[in-house]
């Protein structure tokens, strides 16, 4: 059946579905059905969608771009599910005008994206600035501003020039700090007159976890019990990597504040990923495990940037292994963010491993001697999704925002990522008729609104993601997008959730959206370009082209 026919038929049954499943889904999980409106958020609140360079751009060797670590890593068989790569990704390199148009059609006033380091500085400090890369990002920024959309720019989101990895081990070396400083300075000089929202680095804690604990991201370092890589030390290397990232951030912010901020009028922060945690058992040791879990994830990154040192919970257990900041470093690290970028997807239970036996992994100090799980007494904490350990737990949004707000003196917060991936076994029609994603956004935004009413200084929210894209180790099987992307034609088709988000941003009630789903139910196809060839997309895209894998459970975080 054609994709758009599927949407048309699905929408006809949307109201019936809601009547049947307004309080629970087929598996029996509670669904928080709340009527959330745009008017519950401040008038100047930023609402946007988010993407990152390697995940959407493609054009991996065009116009002077150099090889990135992900270009090399994804071309090694077995590293990525289905041996997929981001050579073309969503072809945003050629289609960014169309992507800006669909973002505008949603009604957003901000757009979060990242710089491809290898597109700007193909060889890092060992080469010159690439004019082609500067031109590309200038076009994106200018086009967004013409549409009334604020660029929210991340300087480094996992991808980096392969040459820096080959020469000195990238983030394992302190040399990387100055290479990052060069990239940041280049961005401030070339784009800072128009970019008012900067984040230096995306999720240092996740980068360290996936690249140096589990070995699932380049450079694929790990050690038992977390993995069996040919190289790596999962107890030590992640600490070194995050330390270098934080110092690089501090140097970049110092430069920005001394030379650019007063003239350009922007603000700068860093993005951290954090689950919320709840005690597995009703005992004090598990409540302390919750505190450690939060400290060893978000606190690991944010405490040094606010207070000048790692969390006391980490100092207590890491002792000599945890790097120390010099007095000079502490001076420029402390207070080195104007806002916190918070990526939040899910909530887990935490169990103490100091006074209780735990499975391998939880008993290591890199985990804070804490075991985390989504299951208690045979019952899951929330509805499962297509990503292992990502459960739908809307209350976690309110709790994590409240925690971050209290720990960091009510510093401004932007929720820089929040989104839903359907189970990988979900039938193709449901990828477009994504009712569960609608429930997800409705519940999480309602929880965020509650946190704001309680006093949290939250200033923006970005849905992950504008469109289905290359989801790192999971390739294209995991689909977080508001728009479906046909992998053959690159045609973008709005899902039901895109219509809901548009409806929400127009300040219409969720209940009214549910009643009016038969209005204009068939999304339009878009004319798109695949690499150098023009493709006229039709309404007859075959739903069987949707890539999925029914048997693989993906662990992204």
Contiguous helical run count: 20
What's the overall average pLDDT, rounded? Answer: 89
Assembly type = single chain
CATH architecture: Alpha-Beta Barrel
Strand and helix map with partners:
Elements lengths: L2 H10 L1 H8 L24 E5 L2 H4 L12 H6 L17 H15 L3 E5 L2 H4 L10 H16 L3 E7 L5 H7 L6 H17 L5 E6 L1 H10 L23 H23 L1 H4 L2 E7 L2 E4 L4 H24 L4 H7 L8 H7 L5 E5 L3 E6 L17 E4 L1 E2 L2 E2 L2 E2 L6 E2 L2 H13 L5 E5 L10 H5 L2 H19 L4 E7 L18 E3 L6 E3 L1 H10 L4 H6 L12 E3 L2 E3 L22
Parallel strand pairs: 1-2, 1-15, 2-3, 3-4, 4-5, 5-7, 6-8, 7-14, 14-15
Antiparallel strand pairs: 8-9, 10-11, 12-13, 16-17, 18-19
Could you provide a short overview of the structure?
It comes from Gossypium tomentosum (Hawaiian cotton). This protein is α/β, with parallel strands linked by helices and 557 residues long.
Explain what you see:
- The chain is about 40% helix and about 15% strand.
- It is α/β, with parallel strands linked by helices and about 550 residues long.
- It has a single domain (about 5-545), classed as Glycosidases (TIM Barrel, Alpha-Beta Barrel).
- It has an 8-stranded parallel β-barrel, surrounded by 6 helices.
- Strand 16 and strand 17 (about 490-495) form a beta hairpin.
- The longest helix is centred in the middle third of the chain and has 24 residues, at about 285-305.
What descriptors fit this protein?
557 residues, alpha/beta, TIM Barrel, 8-stranded parallel beta barrel, 3-stranded mixed sheet, 20 helices, 19 strands, 39% helix, disordered C terminus
